[in-house]
Amino acid sequence: MTLEFVMAKPILTIKNLTKKYGGNAVFHNIDLTVNEGDTIVIIGPSGTGKSTLLRCINLLTCADEGQIWLDDLEITAKGCDDDRVRQHIGMVFQNFLLFNHLTALDNVMLGLTKVKHMKPEEARVKALSELERVGLSDRADHYPGQLSGGQQQRVAIARALAMDPRIMLFDEPTSALDPELIGEVLEVMRKLALEGMTMLVVTHEMGFAREVADRIVFLEKGSIVEEGSPDDLFYHPKNERTREFLWKITELYGKKEENK
Amino acid sequence: MADWLQLFQRYLPDFIKGAAVTIELTVVGLAIGFAIGLLLALARLYGPLWLKTLAIGYIELFRGTPLLVQLFLIYYGLPSLGLTLTQTVSAYLALGLNSAAYQAEYFRGAIQSIGSSQMTAGRAIGLSRWKTIWYIILPQALRLVIPAWSNEPISLLKTTAVVFLIAVQDLMAKAKRAATATYDPIGSYLAVAVVYLVLVIVLNWGLKYLERKTVIPGFEMDSKKV
Amino acid sequence: MDVAKFLQYIASGTAYTVGVTLISLPAGLILGTLLALLNVYSGRLSKWLTNLYSTVMRGIPPIVLLFILYFIVSGSINLSPFLAGSISLGIVSSAYQMEIVRGAILSVSGGQMMAARAIGMTKRQAIRNVILPQTLRLAIPPWSNEAAIVIKDSSLVYALGVPEILRRAQLISASTQQPFLAFAAAAVIYFILVFITSRLLDRLEKRLRIPANP
Fold first, then answer.
1. Chains in contact with chain B (at least 3 beta-carbon pairs closer than 8 A)
2. How does pLDDT run across B59-103, given as a tens digit for each residue?
3. Cβ–Cβ gap C130/A93 under 8 Å
4. What does residue C187 show for φ and ψ, rounded to 5 degrees?
5. Could you tell me how many CB contacts below 8 A there are between chain A and chain C?
6. Predicted TM-score of the model (pTM)
7. Angle between helical axes of B151-159 and B185-214 (0-180°, round to 10)
8. Minimal CA separation from C115 to chain A, in Å
9. Rounded CA gap, A222 and C107, in Å?
10. Cα–Cα dist B192/B81, whole Å
11. pLDDT tens digit sequence for C71-114
């Protein structure tokens, strides 16, 4: 159980966010606050808009209603196509999406040189240190095609970290990985959380959720069913659907609950 | 604009006659190309080494040189070797031999797609190599090739436009006549461009229709433009 | 009958052929790439207009377009048939190259654009630094095909009187009464040009290939 300091500073505030496709709401009236240093994990059945939610947060997609604040700035104020906002929000995709024509080092450096207009030498030093942080400094001159899935994803994390974001968004970062490669990515994410990075993670990895998350949000059918600490959700779920979902999912992953 | 429409109207009968010749050239060229192209593809895939090499040589040669050069070789060059052909026959021959090289590659792609598994299956029930090719592989290949192959009639239609340079009275030749008569080259060639465009669009529709009618769901080739 | 001298005469037409190609191919590439970018990344009107351009320019025989453009171009400015023909061929090729580049852009996955924007790049920066480098690599094989076509189509400027290979072959054939030899020589020269170009582009593709483990 984490101690909530009275001075907890919200990095990301979402109020009343709604997104529709055609006539149907992908998600509606989402309220969420992420404080500095928090690791929030979003869980829920596939297709409930979790990815779309993340993409609305970093303005890759436009929400139809609602507002989002990053620190004290309302980023949804000018509609939703602000490139500069994305310099402060890091995003890691399910399919890694590394730039195929660049080495790992160049992938990490690109944002620094072209977006932040850093001098190449400075950028290289920073990029190498980020690769070091994810454990891949020895693969700096490899191309994505020469790296395993787990390595590619770690480079993708380094790429996002290099921009020094206020918050890191993870969109099912391990769902496209072979089982034996999942561990190395989760380990990097765990380290980040311990270092105090503010993180919003969509995942099916319940072990990670239970051990690393400060709070877990259960999203189903486009709205938040329940929200709370891992202990609360796993051991004392308030909502029947939450209990059902978690039970099914932990069954699937071969873990059994001791007490229910 | 009004002038141009007038020109168009005045020469339309001529253009239609020219278009008929163009269509004829396309059809004959396509047919010759089909027959020879199919043989080339078979030679290339199933023939003995010397035949394979000849086929590859033919294809490289006809695809590696301009049609215009091939046309002049046949019409102007052959007579000095004893074979004199009329303009029209020269055009048919040049277009046909040229098209054969491109069609051969389409057929080769389709046959290779069907490939060796069907050959194995055919021979496993006792069919000879050539019988398997004739009864099993070709029927499938010819069906499979249609989407990719439909590039060829359109390409050929456009290619026929150069034969006016050996005085075949096709659509382009009529345009040239109109241009010299009216002193309006831009207008004349524009008019003929419109006719060609119409021909191409109609041909395209026809081919798309054919494609739709013959497609077997789930059985498609990666449409590679050769 | 001085065969060597005549062959040399035909071969010197090669300079014109190569010249026409070296003007029209890059012109077509620049224009084609611009049109492809407009088609994929600008609004609906751009897409519609560029599609119209593509359909019309590819539906008309190159020689017809050559004549039309030649008469238009030489009507307004005083250009040699060589230049006018080259520019016209470049415009013809631009429609085909637009389709090639467009196909390549579309096969670079949409995720690449998304990833680029996720680190704060503008659309334009993403196109320049992420999409185009990958596009141009993917486009080399079909482009190599187009290069061969432009070399062959350069023979069409024969009709404009440009003293390139074919025109010279014809003059030789008339003066020596050896048409077969003359045109065969022309064929050989074109073949060599196409062959060399294809090999060079193959090598370029291999050099630019992004290393990947099988």
1. C
2. 999 999 999 999 999 999 999 888 999 999 999 999 999 999 999
3. no
4. -60, -45
5. 72
6. 0.83
7. 160
8. 6
9. 32
10. 36
11. 888 778 878 889 989 999 999 999 999 999 999 999 887 899 99
